[in-house]
Amino acid sequence: MSDTTIPSFDGRALIDGERVAARDGQTFDCLSPVDGRLLTQVARCSQADIDAAVAAARAAFEDRRWAGKAPAQRKRVMIRFAELIQANGDLLALTESLDMGKPVKYAKGVDVNSAANCVRWYGEAVDKVYDEIAPTPDTALALITREPVGVVGVIVPWNYPMIMAAWKIAPALAAGNSVVLKPSEKSPLTALKLAELALEAGIPAGVFNVVTGYGPEAGSPLALHMDVDCIAFTGSTRVGKQIHVMAGQSNLKRAWTELGGKSPNIVFADCPDLDKAVEASVGSIFFNQGESCNAPSRLFVEASIKDAFLEKALKLVPQYQPANPLDKNTVMGAIVDQVQLDNVMRYIGLGQSEGAKLLAGGERVAPVAGGCYVQPTIFDGVTNSMTIAREEIFGPVLSVLSFTDAADVVKQANNNIYGLQAAVWTRDINKAHGVARALRAGTVHVNSYDEDDITVPFGGFKQSGVGRDKSLHAFDKYTETKTTWIRIDSPV
Ligand code: NAD
User: Fold this and answer.
1) pTM
2) Ranges for the Aldehyde dehydrogenase domain (predicted)?
3) What are the two backbone dihedrals, phi and then psi, of residue 155, each rounded to the nearest 5 degrees?
4) Is the shortest distance between the CB of 421 and ligand 1 below 6 Å?
5) Ligand 1 center from residue 113 Cα (angstroms)
């Protein structure tokens, strides 16, 4: 892509409806992993900026400029917001692709569409959700109502910047809260654009603020803030644990965390369609360069079909070779930055040194000079105790393990600190259901992978986090439940 077709980006924060530099004037470089180019300077926000954003959000919440609107009014604005995301889809997709390296075709086809759909879905839902009346005696009327929690802090990672933000800001805003969003320092640009579009759609100034910057400087002050009522975090388990500590150390704000994963993908010999299982298994681990929390990174194949499975899998690998993300045909783009690329290479080295067999990939490549790229990589002969089977790599690296029967594979699959997702492939309904019930994971796919949509909850068991994104359950995170008990003195 020539320099003239790269948009110019405004890296200033968005607080109280205005684009603003950090109070102390600090910035950081926003580099593209596509080719290493400098995209823009971004505001390096810290305590004073977070204080200003939280104050703006608090003022907006207290005067009820948004929370006080009828649900049907908020719905109309949210739907307009979704339409604007869609209308700006090409720019948002190009921005996302440049900022974090994903193929532009998926940035548009998946990220933009999912973010817009999420905003629209919660907008449409909010005037259809009813509160409750308790089954009291005639001498009382008891209302159980939902109220917005207040000021919601949102901290998100870089792998699906728009979608991760939308999963939180959409239900939070639809429910009437004010939001302060801190995107990852590795991918701050689309969040800023989303907040501009929200303003254009009619979400009042101060209701949706974006502060950019590093985790310890901008994220921690948000998580520790005494005037933030709820913190919704997506990111690593390491930082997620700190978020819960910070919530407890400060005002006991509600803390919700969507964290890491090491999802088991279990293929039995009686899987109904081996080609489909192979395609979904390979496609899902390499999608988004393997930088997906729910990537099926532990593939368990029943011993009797493992050779046949791997032969088919290896034939698919060439189509996932990394290429320029800005090329509309590319399916595997760049790793988000040099730090993450080094991390992926370290795990590939550990796989080899701990005795796994490298079947494919394993090398850095340079389809675009100056960018961060690695080949799609498959290890066979992995055991559940190896580091590449235990830890989240967050890159295009598949660990292949085998098993003998259902009891064996359930034990292996559950033997991990994470519990985000899982899959089971079998034509036996009893086995499918039995294994799905036994797996300790927030979502279990049967004879598919990652085909779910906004209507179902998403989140983890164990150290994959606390709480659920998506579906009507997400409203639970951004509302308080209130009981109003009304005495009725003279029942007729
Ligand atoms: P990360 O934890 O390093 O960072 C996530 C966010 O937290 C960033 O905005 C970062 O700036 C901020 N942060 C870092 N240190 C902080 C601190 N001390 N205080 C407050 N905020 C801080 O994660 P990442 O590398 O950006 O993202 C990858 C991780 O996200 C993976 O573990 C992945 O599994 C997880 N993830 C989970 C889900 C899910 O839904 N479960 C979805 C996507 C990504």
Assistant:
1) 0.98
2) 24-483
3) -125, 125
4) no
5) 23
Return the bridge partners of 358, or none. 379
In the numeric block, the tokens 């992993």 are attached to: 33
* Cα dist from 272 to 22, 264, 425, 490, whole Å: 56, 18, 7, 66
- Give distance in angstroms: CA of 483 to centre of ligand 1: 35
SS3 182: strand
CA 488 – ligand 1 centroid, Å: 51
User: Does 219 sit in the ligand 1 pocket, CB within 6 Å?
Assistant: yes
Does 223 contact ligand 1 (Cβ within 6 A)?
Answer: yes
- Domains, the chain, with CATH or none: 13-259+465-481 (3.40.605.10), 264-446 (3.40.309.10)
3-state secondary structure of 435: helix
Residue 174 Cα to ligand 1 middle (Å): 24
Instruction: Judge whether 118 counts as a catalytic residue.
Output: no
CA distances from 404 to 24, 408, 412, 464 (A): 61, 6, 11, 27
Q: Establish whether residue 418 lines the binding site of ligand 1, counting it when its CB lies within 6 angstroms of any ligand atom.
A: no
* Active site (annotated) includes residue 258: yes
